[in-house]
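Side project, low priority. Logging it here so it doesn't get lost.
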Amino acid sequence: MARPRTPLLDRARIGATALRLVDEQGDFSVPQIARELGVRTASVYHHVDGRAGVIELLREHVGAAIDPATLETTPWDAALESWARSYRAAFAAHPRTIPLLTVSPVRAPRVLALYERACGVLLDAGFAASEVIPVIVAVENVVLGSALDLAAPETMWEVADPADTPRLAAAVAHAGPHRADTAFELSLAGVMERVRGMRG
C-alpha cells in the first residue's frame, strides 16, 4: 500500500487544532484533539509531551504572529513599544489562550529566542541584568491585560438608571468607541515613562 503523501499527524496540525478548540471553547483536552484529527490519543502523545507540550504549541502558534523585526527598531524604547503593540495584536486574535499560557513556563525555542532578543535590547540600552525581567514582565502585564480587554464587551458597565450612578453613567457615555485602545496607550505610556526613568 502506498504511503499517504502528507502525514496524518504532525505538530503543526496538533497545534492548529488545539488553537481552534481554545478559540471556540477556552480549553482543550488531548483526547479531544485526537478525535478532531481522527486519530488515537496515543498517536498525539507520540508528537507532544502531553498537555504541557500542546500548550507550548499554542504558544508557538500565537507567538509566530509577533513581529521580531520590531525589536530591531531604534532607539531601544521605540523597539519596546513596537514589540508591545505587535505582541498585543497577536494575543488579541486569540485571547482565550492567555489563561493557559500565563500559568505554564515558556519552553518553546522560537518564543525563547524572541525573549532573548528583548533582553538584548534592554541590556544594550544599559539596563542592569536585574532590571531586564521586571521590565519585560511589566510590559507583558499591559499587553496581556489589554488583549483580554479587547475581547470584552465594548461597554463593561451596564447602567440601568443613570440617576443611581450619575458620574459613572457620564464617564461611560464619554469613554468613546475605542476604549480598549485608549486604555492600552495610556497604560503603555505610563510603564514606558517609568522604564525610561530607570536609566537615570
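Brief comment: The two ends are 70 Å apart (CA to CA).
Revisit when time allows.
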